[in-house]
Design brief:
Blueprint: H1 4-8, H2 11-30, H3 40-49, E1 53-54, H4 55-62, H5 70-78, E2 82-86, E3 94-98, H6 100-120, H7 126-143
Antiparallel strand pairs: 1-3, 2-3
Helix pairs in contact: 3-6
């Protein structure tokens, strides 16, 4: 007997939905040793590569408005992952710096990400992995709204 989802959606949508659900469940079970929320990882990576950047620069890099990441930065600062300091020359600007704790957690997350990729692509040939990655890029481009980068 087909479930309601399978009877109303095409095979791709069903499998993609299952993939996202399984990915989230696996991600949450494996991320226990990393004291970051998944959305914080790219923010920390940006700060690590651009130590002293502004909130606006972080938001621009992630294609979000600066205000959209305010709560994340507050949580990250409270957790000791980052520090925010006013710019010496322009007090209207707040610079964001990664702490040693932030670097340590980011390194754990990067290692975790590499392991997670191995899980994703277990049994795939190099060619299959490259093909899937290429196809996903095409799908992302198809879904982009004009003006997105």
């Amino acid at each position: 007997m087909k479930n309601c989802l399978e009877s109303r959606m095409n095979a791709f949508e069903v499998e993609f939905h299952k993939l996202l659900r399984l990915r989230r469940a696996r991600l949450m079970s494996l991320i226990n040793n990393v004291e970051l929320f998944p959305g914080q990882i790219p923010i920390l990576a940006i700060i690590d590569g651009n130590n002293g950047c502004t909130q606006k620069e972080i938001g621009g890099n992630m294609k979000f408005k600066a205000a959209s990441i305010t709560d994340s930065l507050k949580r990250m600062e409270k957790a000791g992952l980052i520090n925010r300091e006013q710019d010496d020359k322009d007090l209207r600007i707040t610079r964001v710096y990664i702490t040693d704790v932030g670097k340590e957690q980011l390194e754990k997350a990067v290692k975790f990400s590499r392991n997670f990729e191995e899980i994703y692509f277990a049994g795939f040939s190099t060619e299959e992995k490259e093909t899937l990655t290429s196809l996903l890029k095409k799908m992302n481009n198809n879904l982009k709204i004009e003006g997105d980068d």
